[in-house]
Amino acid sequence: METRTLTYNDRISRQFVWASVGWGLAAMLVGAVAALQLAFPQGNLASWLSFGRLRPLHTNAAIFAFVGNMIFAGIYYSTQRLVKARLASDKLGSIHFWGWQAIILSALITLPLGFTQGKEYAELEWPVDIAIAAVWVIFAINFFWTLARRNEKHLYVAIWFYIATIVTVAVLHIVNSLAIPVDALKSYSIFGGAQDALVQWWYGHNAVAFFLTTPVLGIMYYFLPKAADRPVYSYRLSIIHFWALIFVYIWAGPHHLLNTALPDWAQTLGMIFSIMLWAPSWGGMLNGLLTLRGAWDKVRQDPVLKMFVAGVTFYGMATFEGPLLSIKSVSSLAHYTDWIVGHVHAGALGWNGFMAAGMFYWMVPRLYGTRLYSRSAANAHFYLGTLGILLYVVAMWVSGVTQGLMWKAQNPSGGLMYPSFVETLLAILPMYWVRLTGGTLYLAGMALMAWNLWKTARSGKAVDGQAEVVILPRTPQPPWAKLLFQPAPLFVVFLVGMVLAAGFLDAIGTTGLILLAALIAVLGGSILSLTRKDGEPGWHHMLEGRPLLFTVLSVIAVLIGGIAEIVPTIVMQKNDERTATTHPYRPLELEGRDVYIREGCYTCHSQMIRPSIAEAQRYGEPSTMAESLWDHPFQWGSKRTGPDLARVGGKYPSSWHYYHLLDPRSTSPGSNMPPYAFLETRKVDGTRTRGKVAAMQRVGVPYADAEVAGATLDASAQATEITADLKAAGIEVDPESEMVAVIAYLQSLGKKARPQVATQVTTTGGAR
Amino acid sequence: MRALAAELYAGSELMGWPLLALVLFIAVFAAAAVRVVRRGRSAFDEVARLPLEDDRHER
């Protein structure tokens, strides 16, 4: 047997660790500033530091800079050791590292300056999107190349999670980022309205799944056994929960759109699969916690295990809360409230943050050939962080439920008990201060960690791990034909054929045939497994040694859910577009909408009136799909720190909007909205208006060529109307100002729709 | 049965496709679950110990 001494590339892990720690502190500091601004609106000091600009910076930094760098550190460290091969290319690794940091830097510059696509967790404009795709491809090439050079036959379960992460994130990013550029830093999504809502939250929820969960589960499956010095509790459970997780997760996106104008069937699919997701998620949690059976005394001593146990527990909590929130009736209370914010941060701070901390506390001493500098500081970090999370999350639960109930509350005569939105905000303001306190404590814990890790590194010297490995002889793999023409895949092909044949039957016949296929699937699968000869390698066993085929099947598993949910909406959207009577935005309204998106107004204001009595009383008739048909990107929103704006058009005179934007508290005492006085002096760049309308036309909005050609003139004419209206109220304003454009947009909301004759608006469920 | 199917397809004619996806998933999941349960815990001991092995080999 040939053996060789390998030296792993641990430099790359060291680089990603420090990047994660640094950006993590920055992300959380921005988060603390944003939390302060919500409690104290005077904290909005300048246009580029206002809440609407900082919130996307915070989310992108937390997800892609903090957690992104952390997962790369863990993946590079663990993969080399699990496959017993050095990283295939140091150069590609270096490009990955520096490319990723350049992307983060571009976010740091462009987002506060207002260059945004206006899609949550995908705000970065199209040149950066292309850079992300390029860097991701480089990462994927290096990863799979390393697998190809491995000296370990079996792919440990952590590697499966990494494979699923790499392929799914690529698919999600590419599809959701599809856009038509207007210029170098502006673009419009090719998706609009309800279809964009579905694509956005198919992406958004699976960014959580495949960027924040699966790679960290892989990290858990490597680092938790390492820290506990015992193998995972049940490898069999890890196989089952892996396949269930990566299939079911993809369907969960519509749970962000419950009780909206999204069709009922899509909402129901999202709800059911989200509830099912509880099972594989807790499979992972239990596997992690039960690994520590008989080793709980170690948890008392070791800060690494403390962090991992708490992290996995918060994961369990968040993955119980998530399915709960995905029930339509629960969502009708929680959606748009702070309960969702609490849920997100339990996962982000508890699961991601603590798993990162545990991994860093374990890895950094080994990366520098020394011991952790201060165990007591690490323990202090743990307690600070836990207290911080508890304050944050409990504050958000109280605030969310309080505000949700206040929005719904009816007085005995059947009217709204709290008709003023600001009343509901003032009731929860104390909770915003508690949230800020909790977040600040957590940040303090992170700072303590950064200090501890730096002192640890200073006390040692960078060292790359070495190992004596047995070089695997290159045994011939089972030929493709043998692998594909096995009973198991042939059986699946038979089932698919059965179901496709159902396309020739009517609806009832189709349903019956599909149910029959399901029954045969369960029975046949069981028979196949039970009749396999003992000692003969199973089909899945052969599959585990073939990462390429494994990858292809993982891709199919995750694509199924996306195709099943998105394709029907494409078909429906085409029908809607053919029969639509909704008018697109006038050019000045479009300019105003771009300012709305730039300033991040959608981070606090929704545009989706849900079909309930209280919402109809507060905001007007429930929103229909038709009304947002031409919104590229959609503006349904996901949070109400301020009221819904779907039917604000015509509700207030233009002068009200003028004073409200100058100083929100002048019209709405107690409001925490940032002031936008600078809109009065900033001018719309009229030379870009025509290009914007043309770009909208390219993504399918039915502007006539004459409307595109006359866009600048029409904008000017509408601006004149609005300034005349303002002048009648004693207000002089420049017709070319962004203020006028935003007022034009706001005054159009809810007025340009003429519902289609076929559309039924009901008080239960969605529009279809 | 007719009423159930009618309600299912009232949302969209394309509801058969998510059902197909579910069937495929059930088939794969059932086969994987039966296979791992049948193999027994000890069959996976070697691969489960992989994260701990590199400590033995590491210098």
Sum up the overall morphology of chain A in one term: globular
Radius of gyration of chain A: 27 Å
What's the total number of strands of chain B? 0
Number of helices of chain A: 28
Helix content of chain B: over 70%
Radius of gyration of chain B: 22 Å
Low-confidence stretches of chain A: 753-768
Order of helices and strands of chain B: HHHH
> Which class best fits the helix and strand makeup of chain B?
mainly alpha
The chain-level mean pLDDT of chain A equals 90
Q: What structural class should be given to the helix and strand makeup of chain A?
A: mainly alpha
Greatest interface: A-B, 74 and 51 residues
Can you list the strand order of the major beta sheet of chain A?
1-4
Would you kindly provide a written description of the structure presented here, covering whatever features stand out?
The complex is a heterodimer of chains A (768) and B (59). With 768 residues, chain A is mainly α. Helices cover 65% and strands 2% of the residues of chain A. Chain A is built from 28 helices and four strands. In chain A, helix 4 (126-148) packs antiparallel against helix 5, helix 5 packs parallel to helix 20 (547-579) and helix 21 (587-598) crosses helix 28. Chain A is globular and about 90 Å long. Chain A starts with a strand and ends in a 20-residue tail after the last helix. Chain B has 59 residues and is mainly α. Chain B contains four helices and no strands. Chain B has helices at 2-11, 16-39, 45-48, 50-57. The longest helix of chain B has 24 residues, at 16-39. Classes of the chains: A mainly alpha (768), B mainly alpha (59). At the A-B interface, helix 2, helix 6, helix 7, helix 8 and strand 4 of A face helix 1, helix 2, helix 3 and helix 4 of B.
Outline of the structure:
The complex is a heterodimer of chains A (768) and B (59). In chain A, 65% of the residues lie in helices and 2% in strands.
Features:
heterodimer; A: 768 residues; mainly alpha; two-stranded antiparallel sheet; B: 59 residues; 78% helix; elongated
